[in-house]
Design a protein that fits this description.
With 146 residues, the protein is of the alpha+beta class. The chain is 27% helix and 28% strand. The N and C termini lie far apart (48 Å).
């Protein structure tokens, strides 16, 4: 079944350069994105409420399960940033992260189900080397171009 890729994605941030990511037990760290800004805001409010009550950010209980309180207030500590799919793909590749996209949230009496996809990025070794050199070598360490 072919799904339509949203034009915009929204991610949760605690500062402008920290994106909400999770580490499912069987995969590498993944950025969590949302197809709808209102869904990102809802989950961000739940994350803030959890932190307010426990003084720590929540972790996955199992591979696909996290217990969060219902959102009871407006966002204060977290923010939402919009991306195009290409921008988000590039961010993930450059930071060696996978991507989870939440396309819909279904509410039942006692829980929410998040529906979406996961994207695992396979990056060739030469590309990884170039990314790391670009990010971490000082200008004086960069070899001259031939």
């Amino acid at each position: 079944m072919l799904t339509t890729i949203p034009r915009s994605f929204y991610t949760i941030h605690s500062s402008s350069n920290t994106v909400y990511a999770t580490k499912p037990p069987t995969t590498k760290i993944s950025v969590v994105s949302f197809a709808h800004k209102s869904h990102a805001e809802l989950i961000a409010c739940m994350l803030e409420d959890y932190k307010l009550k426990t003084l720590e950010w929540p972790q996955l209980e199992t591979e696909n399960h996290m217990i969060l309180p219902l959102a009871t207030r407006e966002l204060s500590e977290l923010s939402i940033i919009g991306w195009t799919k290409d921008e988000l793909d590039m961010y993930c590749v450059q930071n060696f992260l996978d991507l989870i996209t939440v396309n819909d949230i279904k509410k039942s009496k006692s829980s929410f189900s998040l529906l979406g996809e996961t994207y695992a990025y396979e990056v060739p070794d030469d590309t990884c080397k170039n990314i790391l050199e670009t990010k971490y070598l000082l200008p004086s360490q960069v070899p001259p171009e031939s």
